Each structure stands twice: as C-alpha cells, then as structure tokens.
Amino acid sequence: MAAFAAFRDSARSLAPEAAVVLGSGLGPAVERISIVAEAKFGDLPGFAVPTVHGHGGRAILGHWAGVPVLVFQGRMHFYEGHTWERATATVRLAAELGVRKLLLTNAAGGICDDLHPGDLMPIRDHLKLLDRDAWKRPAEPISVYSPRLLALLPETFTGTYAALTGPTYETPAEIRALKAMGADAVGMSTAVEAETAAKLGLEVAAISCITNKAAGLSSGVLDHSDVQHVAGQPEVVGRMANLLERLIVEGGPGIP
C-alpha cells in the first residue's frame, strides 16, 4: 500500500483537473504528458492488471498542455472476469482524488455507413446492452454526456455507442439489430464508466476511435491485433490527443 499512499499524496498535491482513460492502442497519447508520478494498476486498491494487449495498466499524474491531469493507460473490462466495482475503479479513484471532469476513449467497430477505420466519433449517447450479471446497480434515469464539452469539439460526426459485454465480436445479425436500434459504433467498455462518473457528479465526454467496420460490413475477419494497429497509428493517436487536449484546456476543471 506504500506505492498507493505515495501516489495519492502526489495527486492531492497536483490537484488534477481532468481524468483521462485511454482505450485499446491509444496508450501512446501519454507522450503529451509531463509526468510527475505514476503507479501500476496492481499497486492501486480495487484495480487489477489488464490482460488485454494495448492496455498498459498505468495511472499517471502530470501536466498536459500545462493542465494537471490524471491519466489511466488502459482499463478493466467485464469480459476479463471483473465485477462492476473493478471495471469502474478508475472512475471512482478519480472522483476520490477530487477530479470533476472525465474524458473516456475507446476502440470501436463502425456500424454507421459514414464511419471508417481511423475516424474519431465523439459519443452523444449510448446503448448499454451488457449481461444482466455484469451490471448490478439500481436502474435510474441519468444524463451522462456533457453537451458543453461536446460543443468544444470541432464539427464532426457524433454518434451513439453500443456497449456489449464481449469478449467475442458481434455477429452480422447482431450488428444489423444494433443498427436498427440506432447504434453508430459498438465496443465493450465506456458506458458503465460514463454512467458511474455522472452519478458521482463528474462532467463526462467520450470519444470512440473507429478501428474497423463491424461484423458483416466488410470482407475482413475481425482481430484484436488489427484494432491495436489502427488505434495505435501515430496519425490517429495524434488526432485523438488533439481532441483530448482541447477538452482538457478549453473545458476547464469541469462543472462543480
């Protein structure tokens, strides 16, 4: 626990204004940060070491464009066998450390015809289609994604993200059903983190990196290595980092 105590003390001294969760392949965005302190997920209470490639499993404190931030390089997924408490540990730690603004990123499959690999889709809403046992908390209406933060992003395609449990990719029939339900992209994270953050009073924004066409919409076979390859391309990481930087700098510390 000594490592966590030191990290917590550093966080309280730094007073981060924003927390960022970097999804599959997007970890290189941490190069934008002037690092003050860091800890491995395994050293943080309630966390677990990610088993998915492309999730570095580090919590980083530092300055991004001069703004104090807390950045999580990777996340924990339900399909790794984690409970709701563990899958949302990043969010709850951020709230505990006084952060008021959460920025989530993920890698996702594109369902909408206008989305192609390498595109970035700010999320305006989501469909939470997780297995019942993966999401055990009272149902309640909640406004999740901040219109204020969304308005700071350049005019681009915004869409609805469908969150499924995984770990298997969707079937073509499932993708057709999701499209009929209004989903523009699909992945295996983000929704529970966003809802938990909103319930805790954090202002939330989220961006999907489209890494592939969803099942049945292209001739290729879906593979996680392809997801990492697209999300990790320097040009894609750079564009994602630019959007995050705008939200960090222009978005202020979040609505109290």
From TrEMBL:
<feature type="binding site">
    <location>
        <position position="24"/>
    </location>
    <ligand>
        <name>phosphate</name>
    </ligand>
</feature>
<protein>
    <recommendedName>
        <fullName>purine-nucleoside phosphorylase</fullName>
        <ecNumber>2.4.2.1</ecNumber>
    </recommendedName>
</protein>
<dbReference type="GO" id="GO:0005737">
    <property type="term" value="C:cytoplasm"/>
</dbReference>
<dbReference type="InterPro" id="IPR011268">
    <property type="entry name" value="Purine_phosphorylase"/>
</dbReference>
<feature type="binding site">
    <location>
        <position position="189"/>
    </location>
    <ligand>
        <name>phosphate</name>
    </ligand>
</feature>
<dbReference type="InterPro" id="IPR000845">
    <property type="entry name" value="Nucleoside_phosphorylase_d"/>
</dbReference>
<dbReference type="InterPro" id="IPR035994">
    <property type="entry name" value="Nucleoside_phosphorylase_sf"/>
</dbReference>
<feature type="domain" description="Nucleoside phosphorylase">
    <location>
        <begin position="19"/>
        <end position="248"/>
    </location>
</feature>
<feature type="binding site">
    <location>
        <begin position="75"/>
        <end position="77"/>
    </location>
    <ligand>
        <name>phosphate</name>
    </ligand>
</feature>
<feature type="binding site">
    <location>
        <position position="107"/>
    </location>
    <ligand>
        <name>phosphate</name>
    </ligand>
</feature>
<dbReference type="GO" id="GO:0009116">
    <property type="term" value="P:nucleoside metabolic process"/>
</dbReference>
<comment type="pathway">
    <text>Purine metabolism; purine nucleoside salvage.</text>
</comment>
<feature type="binding site">
    <location>
        <position position="55"/>
    </location>
    <ligand>
        <name>phosphate</name>
    </ligand>
</feature>
<keyword id="KW-0808">Transferase</keyword>
<comment type="similarity">
    <text>Belongs to the PNP/MTAP phosphorylase family.</text>
</comment>
<keyword id="KW-0328">Glycosyltransferase</keyword>
<dbReference type="GO" id="GO:0004731">
    <property type="term" value="F:purine-nucleoside phosphorylase activity"/>
</dbReference>
<dbReference type="Pfam" id="PF01048">
    <property type="entry name" value="PNP_UDP_1"/>
</dbReference>
<feature type="binding site">
    <location>
        <position position="170"/>
    </location>
    <ligand>
        <name>a purine D-ribonucleoside</name>
    </ligand>
</feature>
<feature type="binding site">
    <location>
        <position position="212"/>
    </location>
    <ligand>
        <name>a purine D-ribonucleoside</name>
    </ligand>
</feature>
